[in-house]
Amino acid sequence: MATQPRIEILGENEYRFDEILTPDALAFVTRLHDQFAHRRQERLHDRMNRRVNVENGRDFRFLPETASIREDTEWRVAGAGPGLEDRRVEITGPVDRFSAVAALNSGAKAWGADLEDATSPTWSNIIGGQLTLFDAVRRQLDFIDDDGVTHQLRTGELPTIVMRPRGWHLVEKHLKFTDRAGQRQAASASLVDFGLYLFHNAQKLIDSGKGPYFYLPKLEDHLEARLWDDIFTFSENALGIHHGTIRATVLIETISAAFEMDEILYELRDHCAGLNAGRWDYMFSLLKSYRERGRQFVFPDRTRVTMTVPFMRNYTELLVATCHKRGAYAIGGMSAFIPDAHKPELTEESLARVSEDKHREVHDGFDGTWVANPALILTARAEFDEVLGTNPNQITRQRDDVEVTAEQLLDVRSLDKVVTDAGVRSNVTVALRYIESWLRGVGAVELENIVADASAAEISRAQLWQWIHYSIVTAEGNRITTESVTAELAEQVRFADRFSGDQFDAAADIVRLVALEEDFPTYLTIPAYAHYLVDVPARVPVAA
């Protein structure tokens, strides 16, 4: 006889976890799995087929079967919900209590609370992050740090929370779902993150004059957007909230999604606020997809792939034009620089680059942008204030001048192709040190004066794989091989500042697995999570 679906908890019951993992909340997450887990598997299967097609020479294209959606000039998306009308500067980052208080006190218009790329998915971090959000929504978030200093939320208006659940490709191994056929499997990380947050906080957010808002990561096509829209409608009905209360902003951070932006907006139109140019993951997606399609697709040093190279410029301009045509907000990319009082010249130079970047975005038509550090908010905001003034957005600015072809979205042939010894060392450093930190439970790391998340490590390891695959010779005349990268990796581990509990050896194993083997895992976090990540008990936050 078939069994009733249920969720089984395998993770430890830490401090206050019972406030999140309540029977009613788990019952709601169970219902989400019962309704949508099979469709998630179908979408992941389609991803595999798409990947094989591209590897076999089939380029991405604008879909002929959805041309009528693109050509219909009448339909619009729901747009901003209450509290999302002005998004000129958003701060994004992890959901630990310290980072959350800093973000909510920063003066930004919105906080992208990231349970995905900026969070190492230990059980402590995931449920602890839900507790952080639970307390933030109720304005009871505070803690005492190691020096005995109390940190509390400021009075007055706080940034609107936009929560980013984990992507469709990830699972939550600490929760097991048993379906109606009696089959037991790891829960979907997306459904867990979304379901727990929505169940506990939707009504509180509505009562506060805002709403339950989400950033949707790693979408690859409009059918994945349709799945999310169906989940939103089901959830609104299940929780008794008005249709369209949930609003989503989709991160366009895969190359396939760039070809279906109109269709993604259309599928989510009753729940859609806008699109975001998730530029670092976007670079990784194109690099990953075309890594074996010939030397013309070889990327130069990571730092040389800027937002002004043709394929990135074409992607962002198309995003703005598509959004504004449909009444959606266009949110620009991340500035991740970390100011350093001990390096005034570097700080001045970097802030100038941030200003230049935001100047370009707002003059291209973006309605808002991202920063990773509170110290960048004033610089970014100054550029948007100059153009927007008191207007909350510039959606009325239609970019009818923008016409982007499929060939232009894939135009990497014009990159300068320069690879240096320093670029190789930097990629090894970023991949090794980010993964080492991630394995210790820290998902946002200061590396090379920026806040690095998983996307930095993904780009780094993908470039190493590609450079080895094509036996690229650096500008200094050195051929990049498995042996040369292995030697560089071993040297960096040997001379690392080791400490008790460090994860350099395991991190080096992962780098070898995801960058130096013939097979190329789609995301490094999948094998790393399945085989290497060890739960790090959270330090119990002391309430002030």
Give an account of the 3D structure.
The chain has helices at 17-20, 23-55, 67-71, 97-104, 123-137, 189-207, 222-239, 255-258, 261-267, 279-289, 310-325, 344-364, 377-388, 406-409, 421-439, 454-469, 482-494, 504-515, 525-531, and strands spanning 6-9, 89-93, 110-114, 142-144, 150-152, 160-164, 171-178, 184-188, 213-216, 247-251, 272-276, 329-335, 368-371, 445-447, 450-452. Helix 12 (344-364) links the parallel strand 12 (329-335) and strand 13. It is built from 19 helices and 15 strands. The strands form 4 sheets. An 8-stranded parallel barrel has the order 2-3-6-9-10-11-12-13, surrounded by 6 helices. A 3-stranded antiparallel beta sheet has the order 1-7-8. It is of the alpha/beta class and 544 residues long. Helix content is 45%, strand content 13%.
In brief, what are we looking at here?
The N and C termini lie far apart (52 Å).
Secondary-structure blueprint of this entry?
Layout: E1 6-9, H1 17-20, H2 23-55, H3 67-71, E2 89-93, H4 97-104, E3 110-114, H5 123-137, E4 142-144, E5 150-152, E6 160-164, E7 171-178, E8 184-188, H6 189-207, E9 213-216, H7 222-239, E10 247-251, H8 255-258, H9 261-267, E11 272-276, H10 279-289, H11 310-325, E12 329-335, H12 344-364, E13 368-371, H13 377-388, H14 406-409, H15 421-439, E14 445-447, E15 450-452, H16 454-469, H17 482-494, H18 504-515, H19 525-531
Parallel strand pairs: 2-3, 2-13, 3-6, 6-9, 9-10, 10-11, 11-12, 12-13
Antiparallel strand pairs: 1-7, 4-5, 7-8, 14-15
Helix pairs in contact: 2-6, 2-7, 4-5, 5-6, 7-9, 10-16, 12-13, 15-16, 15-17, 15-18, 17-18
